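> @MW can you paste both from yesterday?
MW: sure, first one:
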Amino acid sequence: MANQALMPVVTLGAYAHLGLGLVRSFGRLGIPVYVLDENLDTPAFYSKYCTGRFHRGMDFAANSMVELLGVSKKIGQKSILIPTDDRACIFVAKNADNLSERFIFPDITVDLVRSLVSKKELYTTAKSHGVPTAETIAPNCREELEEFVRRYNFPIVAKAIHGWRWNARGGKTIIVQTRRELLTLYEFAHPNLILQEYIPGGDETNWIFNGYFDAKSDCLFGYTGKKIRQWPPKGGITTLGVCSKNESIDQTAKKFLAALGYKGIIDMDFRYDTRDGKYKLLDVNPRVGSTFRLFVSETGTDVARTLYKDLTEQQISTQVVRDGRKWVVENFDLLAILNGMNRRELTLTDLRDSFVGVQETAYFASDDLLPCICFCNRLFASAAFSSLFYGD
């Protein structure tokens, strides 16, 4: 058990604050963390808790298997593998037999991963299990697109079926306001495009569920929270979130994932529809989500630490997450604040009150300053470059 407690972790990808959160969460427990990412400036590389850095570009083809097994050889022992994006999740599930010789990870089928990663298949899967969701279509022609518009009117939500193949402008989720805008987007993004009915309401109607499910699909850690702000507006990542118990979402998520036989970390997005009083499922990420450090128990446990304890066969006790805990992503929240003030949707009083209860920031940490310093330097350098070449 002593050796199991020191089993290393390898993060397959380390996007921005997600990778940094993983490194800090494990590193503060004394667990060795190795980061594999294609970007030299990823903040996780600069954390004092990062045991080893592997600058690798992963195309998730045959070469990726060679690269990953090479990383394992350098580490010198079996490790827990944590994929951090959709393509990595599919790759790990697809190559589970070969990877399991050197890595430990939840046993989940590639078909299930693909059904959750694909926004088109997710809609069908949710409907078949009686989970409320926004009405969705993947238009195969302009006629189907026009029919959807006639039925649900504008605004309409446009998303990528597979985010990594998105070739449209303006982010992976776009609120489309006009027919002309929709037709232009269709030309850019088809056939990797779905349309969803727009569920009215502000950011306060957006909910999150984060959880970890064991080999029996029992939820060992799970909690709900609300988005206070997001960036980009009306369809981006959480920039300021708050823990808030929601029994309806909690039970829906657990029942749905148990029925699917899901195992591992999950990140889910819901939106409350005032028209029928239902919480509608919007997205499911079969992996650790970028907001996972919002959901931290009184003893410091999160979904990543729960996964580690479960896969190393350690005892897992019941965890309590307090309502009102807040977590903020500094750079993106600043953009969300400026946008809200510019639109006169956010007052100074609202801004002050929104920060009450913030217990953790995504980049700044008093015990690990270098990632924040490097990140700020990169932002300032980027701003100076833009001013030099594009300024007045």
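MW: second:
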Amino acid sequence: MQKITTFLTYKKGAEDAAKLYTSLFKNSRIVSTTRYGEGSPEPAGGVMTVEFELEGQRYVALNADSPTFTFTDGISLSVSCDDQAEVDRLTERLTAGGGEVGQCSWIKDRWGVAWQITPRVLGEMLGDKDPEKAKRVLQAMLKMKKIDIAELKRAYAGETAKV
């Protein structure tokens, strides 16, 4: 059993969110669902929690319509992507239905959960021993919303950007 589990509190939509998330990643599943009972602060029979796994990592989603529970950019789920197709697919699916793409592939899904959808190669290029290469990649990335791997590679190589 996992010692520390990320607990996400939604005003509503925890079950829909868990279903979407588990559909996007391999080795993912819904583990269990609990429902509110009579006398609880939410309607009886409604989903209270959904425990799920994404790539083997456990999460719990709670429905609690309270103004004290909100998502902020102070915490995000970071996804290391293998290629542009994965960046594109995750960005499209996570922002569908009201989400938004922010600077540097920092996105919010329709429930307000912040995600960082970044290609693995970005970290490799930013960590290059040649500070000029890393600087060019950083400058290119800072101009992007959704990350464009081909454009990052051009910057890394010192080529001019495609217009």
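> thanks! The helical segments are 14-24, 84-95, 120-126, 131-142, 149-157.
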